Amino acid sequence: MWYRIVGCMIMLTLSLLVPPLTAEAQQPAQVRRIGILGPFLTPERERNREAFRQSLRDLGWVEGQNLLIESRYAEGGVEQLPILAAELVRFQVEVIVTVGGATPAAKDATDTIPIVMSARDYDPIALGYVTGLARPGGNITGVVEQRLELTAKQLELLKAAFPTLTRVAILWDDASADQLRAAEAAARSLGVQLQALELRHPPYEFAGAFAAATQGQAEALWVLASPIFGMRVQYEQIVDLAARSRLPTMFGISDGARAGGLMAYDVHGGELWRRVADYVDKILKGTKPANLPVEQPMKFEFVINLKTAKALGLTMPPHLLVLADEVLQ
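RESULT FIELD:
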């Protein structure tokens, strides 16, 4: 009799130590689905995408566990963006993150799914995306880069590197026309004469532009930020021609310096995408995009390529090296 009593006491004790297998404990985590829509991938965007994923992980969103990311890139064929946006809507993603010029396609595809912009040179109010920056009022919010404010700083840094600089060739296209106007204003204030070299859509006549720059006795080359200048094949070609022409270069895209250009000044992409991740996190947790203010990037990066400087026989001023966020040896 006594062993039955002891056995019952042991079973009772074990039942108290082992938690009950409730239905809630057995239920897997809910998987949330978001989409990324963009015109094409570049090395810079690949790094930014990884910064985005890491920021989401830091916020508790882990791919394969509670998050699924559907990425759609048009690979340069912007006419495909509306089709890809409609595809993300059919997949019932809960947030669409837009890269570059993809916001219009996402906006046309849905007025209910939240859209988080990562955009350059947009005036979201003028374009009708939001009713105000502080309170967007619809399904669109995000981070908007003000490229025009960066343009003057790029020329200031170029002039600081070469104080006697008076003639600068500047590459631009229709996507950077607003930057060109800002560049012209900055050039007037700094006593620099610009030689504007427009590049039209494919085939891009880079060789012809450099021949014109040489003929115009340009002392440096300034490459404005543009989707076509952000593609690896394009800026590597620009860097190669600049090296042959012995022209120091300032890029409006950071990867231009990393690919062999002399300098670049740009928005810090990793920081921008960490902010985008914050937007996604808040929306997935229930905040309406209408109540999330549109922000501007607050962190920028200045990159100097010393290897390129040495190849050109140039000595960079020490005070600029101190200012640089990244110095490539």
